[in-house]
Amino acid sequence: MSDTSFATDIHIGLTAPLKHISSKYFYDDIGSGIFQDIMKMPEYYPTACEFEILSLQGEGIFKMLDFDKPFSVVEFGAGDGVKTRQLLKTLIEKGAEFSYVPIDISKKAIDELVVNMQQHLPGLHIEPKIGNYFSMMEELSGSSIPCLFLFLGGNIGNYEPADVDGLLADFRKNMKAGDKLLTGFDLKKNPATIRCAYDDPAGITKAFNMNLLNRINRELGGTFKTNHFDFYSHYNPLNGEVRSYLVSLVPQQVFVKETGEVYTFERNELIWTELSKKYSLQEIENVAAKNGFTVMEHFLDCKHYFTDSLWTVV
Ligand code: AVI
After folding, report:
1. CB of 184 closer than 6 angstroms to any ligand 1 atom
2. Please, what's the largest Cα pairwise distance for the chain?
3. Known PANTHER family for this protein (predicted)?
4. What pTM was computed for the model?
5. Which residue in 15, 20, 40, 195 is a FRET match for 124, CA 20 to 30 A apart?
């Protein structure tokens, strides 16, 4: 097997009683490009909401940091940095002394981000890091420099509740007294608004999901026919969960060369691809308290669709 973890995860997921493929596999170069298109869709409100928060409330965020010496702004999974740039711009305008430390697993993403940031904010001091969040965070935790950690974009919504606790425990472990964590949470709202954001009429979200099958074909020698699958997404307003699926339209068998296996699908059988959980402010407070954090402030957009929630360690 050429890419052991991808092939192994696909094999485990496609032989499980409820077939599943982790949403982390959405983001190859093609999938990341489709996600950029999703963020531009009129139905996909989270990007515009968080852009508004970081553009208009940077000064409020800065005031709450209360750092008495130069600090680091450490960002996990920085993406294209367009939203973060709004916050960094305000910090620079306010005369804050800080370094920006974007962390991403993809060298390509980091290289593009650095070029982009240098173009728009020439005075910004950047210390990019390529690697996974936790090894990078451990590396930083030895230093006495105060840190603002950024986990933006509503990415926390893609974690199962049990995994949220594990993730926050890892963040918490590497944070020292006074450090802050700013996390983006998509909020519960009119269910129809959420449904449209995750099942758009132009079919961009469907293409995002189909790319998983195309990716298995490209990278693992799969034989998926995407026209034999459909996309289905469901929002449950009672628990705040959007769950997305691929649906097998016919009984079919698919061979994947790298795993050496044939996978059988019944008609209407599901492959679960993503959880995108929506929170209430009370749930956010509970998650923070459970994991050793205090909420300092919720920075909401004007429609109250999204919050960047600023926490400190207890
Ligand atoms: C990256 N993540 C926060 C997005 C979300 O809203 O859950 C991924 C996404 N999936 C479908 N549309 C966008």
Report:
1. no
2. 64
3. ERGOTHIONEINE BIOSYNTHESIS PROTEIN 1
4. 0.95
5. 40
Q: How far is the CA of 276 from the centre of ligand 1 (A)?
A: 7
Same domain? 67 vs 156: yes
State the complex-level ipTM. Answer: 0.99
Nearest CA to ligand 1 atom 2: 155
Q: What type of residue is 175?
A: M
Domain enclosing residue 112, as ranges: 45-189+279-313
Q: Is the CB of 38 under 6 A from ligand 1?
A: yes
- 221 and 256: one domain? yes
Q: Return the residue whose CA atom lies nearest to atom 5 of ligand 1.
A: 276
> Do 245 and 184 reside in the same domain of the chain?
no
pLDDT digits (tens, 9 = 90+) for 281-304: 999 999 999 999 999 999 999 999
Residue among 152, 167, 274 to mutate when testing ligand 1 (max atoms within 8 A of CB): 274
Q: What are phi and psi of 302, to 5 degrees?
A: -65, -25
Contact 275, 157 (CB under 8 A): yes
Query: C-alpha angle with apex 81: 58 to 45, nearest 5 degrees?
Result: 75
Report how many domains make up the chain.
2
Give residue 250's pLDDT band: very low, low, confident or very high (50, 70, 90). very high
The answer to whether residue 3 scores a pLDDT higher than 50 is no
pLDDT at 188 > cutoff 60? yes
Whether 274 is in the pocket of ligand 1, judged by its Cβ within 6 Å, is yes
